[in-house]
Amino acid sequence: MAFQTLLPCKVRLFLLLCLFAVGQGQSKLYKGFTKFNQVQDNKQGNLFEEQWFIQKLDHFNGADSRVWKQRYFVNDAFYKAGGPVFLMIGGEGPANPAWMQYGTWLTYAEKLGALCLLLEHRFYGKSHPTTDLSTENLHFLSSRQALADLAHFRTVMAETRGLTNRKWVAFGGSYPGSLAAWFRLKYPHLVHASVATSAPVHATVNFPEYLEVVWRSLASENAECPVLVKKASDILVERLKDPKTYDNITKDFNLCSKLQIQTEMDSAYFLETLAGSFMDVVQYNEDNRGFEGVMGTNITIKVLCSVMGDASLGDPYARYVAVARLMMDTFSTKCLDTSFSTYIRDMTNTSWDGPAAGGGRQWVYQTCSEFGFYQSTDSPNQPFTGFPLAYQVKQCADFYNISAEQVAEAVAQTNEYYGGYDIRSSRIVFPNGSIDPWHALGITQDIAPDLPAVFIKGTAHCANMYPARGEDLPQLSLARDHIYVLLQQWMKQ
């Protein structure tokens, strides 16, 4: 569920959450997951007032008595006495109160008489447990601490609101989808059921399958489309070998400063930034995200492939340029900042007012310390070149002094702790979309009758969470209905 936006920005590492979001300028911040775009609508802010919960800084150290305030929202419009409690889990971006007004979970809440709560994730949005984002303080940022936050929140809210005997259901999409599954797994006495949408439950350092799915998703529109993207990417890589081309490349892509390629990190960041347009559009293809304040939802796989297939624009490289320009126009971006040195400066700024404090510095830390998820070009079966795993992992050392060996060890520990694909629990449903590259790390086949998968052909990241609309694919509508039937059954158990 959670997080970020589409075009220019710094971090291109992991998620674009389905739920929470950073402002439009922070777009590339959470590559890969959710995009929680911040909604600047005061009416929504007034409708659902932010509330604050006292939370422990370190749940696993009884000698540490430090506390902080965690933000949450409440919608009790549908609650009927004796009804369940729905808990939407925040992720790698600010909690967006638009989700208290829109979304499929509210349809379920209305039918089942549920109280709806949304809890912001520690270290994101306004939930600041520490004075800054120093690496020392980021040690308190982890999925395990976040689950303990959820457990404590659920326990205290049940006691203070008289909800102890109610059935609690966790909802989340993307990284929060994983948290929803793991909340049920690790705290089965506190949460009765979970809807874990587009949840990458298997951690992996290298995730080249992401770009393989991008190839297949583009090819599903037009078999030639990813071939043309690959040709364009190869031409660009070839030109980067000759510094005489840099002025033209700077002009072509309207870069904010003259292209400087002094290290492999410089070229990797430049190439990844351009590839990001395709990655983001594929991940969120045709999703109904307008209510979040997201721009660019009109740019779809069909649109990208029509540009790449337009011979009147010139060779594949010229069409690739046209895609970049289209994205810049869509997001009103004056120029494209592809400077790796600027990116390093922003990502190592530890202030809460820093340019990566919307979630980029925090999320990349979580990838280095828990998950990996690096969308490298290490597979031959994808359209891009030039941003290998080594480039991704080196950022862990540059930003947080975490070595490649430590990243690998952390990822192994994550799978050992949660079980990866081999989840042993009950009453968790795992919806995924075939277009969404993240489905490669999710559950797409039933594990057991009470651990069902819902694999939705032709839909993208977190599609089943967004509000229904007339043009939805029939299989998306059926998936939403199927999830509701499961919830109905589980509420009786």
From TrEMBL:
Supply the alphabetized keyword list: Glycoprotein, Hydrolase, Protease, Signal
The record's listing under PANTHER family reads: PROTEASE S28 PRO-X CARBOXYPEPTIDASE-RELATED, SERINE PROTEASE 16
Q: One GO molecular-function annotation for this sequence?
A: dipeptidyl-peptidase activity
Q: Which InterPro entries match?
A: AB_hydrolase_fold (IPR029058), Peptidase_S28 (IPR008758), Ser_carbopepase_S28_SKS (IPR042269)
Reply yes or no: does the keyword Ubl conjugation apply.
no
The gene that this protein is the product of is PRSS16
Protein name, please? Serine protease 16
What the record says about family reads: Belongs to the peptidase S28 family.
- Taxonomic source organism: Amphiprion ocellaris
Q: Give GO terms for biological process.
A: proteolysis
Q: Which domain of life is it from?
A: Eukaryota
- Signal peptide feature range: 1-25
Q: Which Pfam families match?
A: Peptidase_S28
